[in-house]
Amino acid sequence: MNAQHTKPTRRDAVGNRERILVVAREALAESSAASLTAIAKKAGVGIGTLYRHFPNREALIVELYRHDIQHLIDLAPALVASHPPLDALRRWFDEVARYGRLKFGVAEVIHAAADRGLDDEYYDPFLGAIAVLLDAGAADGTLKDGLDPEDVLLQLSVLWRIDPARGGEVRAARILDLIVDGLRRPGPGPAA
């Protein structure tokens, strides 16, 4: 059989899919208007290969969302296990901010695909990840007791509104400092 007429192996298909996702994440972080043709070319695959994996732009964006959200969910307990709670929280927030830069230009697509958040299978696990971080900080005394993970998520949602092209990374860091400061357990006041 001629090598030109053989079907790609499963490993080739998986490799193509992963390459497309990596390139798409970078391209969409640079510009939410990145074309599928440009993404396919940069990933080293034909447009037909991209369409076999992702039948439209929305499918590609939703897959990136799922991958990134699952990464954030899995990261929370790993950070708590390897860092002091306040440091773990800030590192996790920094990852959320990085994700926010991707989501900036495509938030409407993600929101529509998740039925405005009502049907999002990742919503409760994401809140659970936040709870892991908050509980660890409350347990060691660095964070306030009784913080609501959903309140924290609402605070973090500002990150997807920050334009990465207009100083977004610096602004996100300042906003995260404000959020973390608001979550910290107050220390003793100044001496009288």
List strands and helices in order, with pairings.
Layout: H1 10-30, H2 36-43, H3 47-53, H4 57-82, H5 85-103, H6 107-113, H7 123-140, H8 149-156, H9 168-183
Short description:
By secondary structure, the protein is an all-alpha fold.
Supply the key terms.
single chain; 192 residues; mainly alpha; Arc Repressor Mutant, subunit A; Tetracycline Repressor, domain 2; 2 domains; 9 helices; 68% helix; 0% strand; elongated
Protein described:
By secondary structure, this protein is an all-alpha fold. It folds into two domains: 8-55, Homeodomain-like (Arc Repressor Mutant, subunit A), CATH 1.10.10.60; 57-186, Orthogonal Bundle (Tetracycline Repressor, domain 2), CATH 1.10.357.10. The protein is built from nine helices and no strands. The chain has helices at 10-30, 36-43, 47-53, 57-82, 85-103, 107-113, 123-140, 149-156, 168-183. Helix 4 runs antiparallel to helix 5 and helix 5 packs antiparallel against helix 7. The longest helix has 26 residues, at 57-82.
CATH class of the largest domain: Mainly Alpha
Q: What count of domains describes the coordinates?
A: 2
Individual helix count:
9
The SSE order reads HHHHHHHHH
The total strand number stands at 0
